[in-house]
Amino acid sequence: MEEAHNAVLLTWRRAWWAQGFKPVILGSAEAMSNPLYTELQVKRLEGTLQTELSMWLAWENMGTGVLCHYLTLPMAPREDPLLVYLRHGEYPQLTRFDKWGNAMFIGSKADITAAVMKALENPELKAQTAESKGPKDFISAVPEDTFKVDKSHDALAFYDDNVITTKYPKIAKDIVGNGAKGLQILNELVVSHLHSTWQNIFDEGISVVKPEPDHMTHAVSPAKKLATFLAQCPTSPLPASCPPNRPKCKPCVAATPLKISTPKAYRNNSGLYTIGTVPHPYTMAVLTSFQDEIDIPWIRRKSKRDLWITSLTQHLMGTGMSGAPRLVKFKEAVASELGRSRSLWVTAEDDMPEDLDWHFGFTIPRTVTDNGKSETPVPGPERRPKVKPDIKDGPVPLDEDLKREQELLRQAKDWEKATKRKTGTKIRRSIEAWNLADTEAWKFARAFLARNRVERQTWENEEKRYAGGAGAERGKNEGWGRWFDD
Question: Considering its fold, how many domains does the chain have in total?
């Protein structure tokens, strides 16, 4: 049971983290740290009211913020007005959500404290028993005007027993009251809804950008594989179902997965998710020249300056602009509030980040599912119709070129490691000086990923102080290394 609870809490934490929040799981220790806890104990309450008052004491001890049930999850674009409002962290009035009971509250420290005091001062609490007419929960224990009631909460999904029974009757018996097995099924359903919501937001597909595409196939291969995983239909106990807050969603169909394209340039399109691979200028030079010997005369006389970022931003800024303004657009795509929710940028020389599930907010499938289309029986691959490449997605490389390309990419990765040991520094300084914008783009993408990783790890360590580290990833992270091996 503990493992099932932990899986549900982990899903909850990932979903909120991906939307820009720092979710903390509170327990009885936080309630007991509140000076008002002694007063609560004197009341000798039981049942739901005791639990909810303890929950509010824990929240009051933390201060201004959001009190959220672990079955309440964000399922909307990052720029949704409610999510934007919640992220700002300024709440002028204590608020609850219509018809949701204790699913979620928002408020300032002062308003939370005032509400707790009103509840504890309620004279009917003393007589609270199973047969009494006293308050049964926190909302009924405080005056009606304590809360502002918000009727608009379409950005959030709440999976209580009533929602499960009403909206998902086919699997309700498998979930409600079925212990650990029920929680596991519910968690699978929630993860599938988070994934399908993401797919609905980016209904125009996934763009794996491939500037100067002739010899960049292996460089963008990990990004292409990640896009394939994201385009898969998530495993679900009820495949055609929609989240409770999005009844008109478009369920994923294996026969028609999300479109994946590999354009040469970046497009700022809200319905398109972008996965970018940023090469170091040396890697770019080796691959585009298709030669393994790069020297200073070649850099000065034959190579084009800032080739990668010029190609990447040609759709946005044309061909006559210098590298500096292009770099501004690139940084906006990587790190702005909208850009970071619509794209992922990795470096060509490094492994894929191990915490991608936290970036996207759901468990990403690690396998490619069957699309249901029949193939010509073996031994007939040669009789299958030739696939015509999409001209807009670039050329299709020959097998011998792919092999050579793989060797050059491996050489570039080895060179990157070698320059850290003070060898090849002259070539490095020269090629970076010749490609200032490309170098800055590479450094920025790498630093942004590193900062996000450190920020999450720091938060993880701090969050372990609460509720005994519930909702943490158990054991060694599965990671992504072997999924992106060529």
Answer: 2
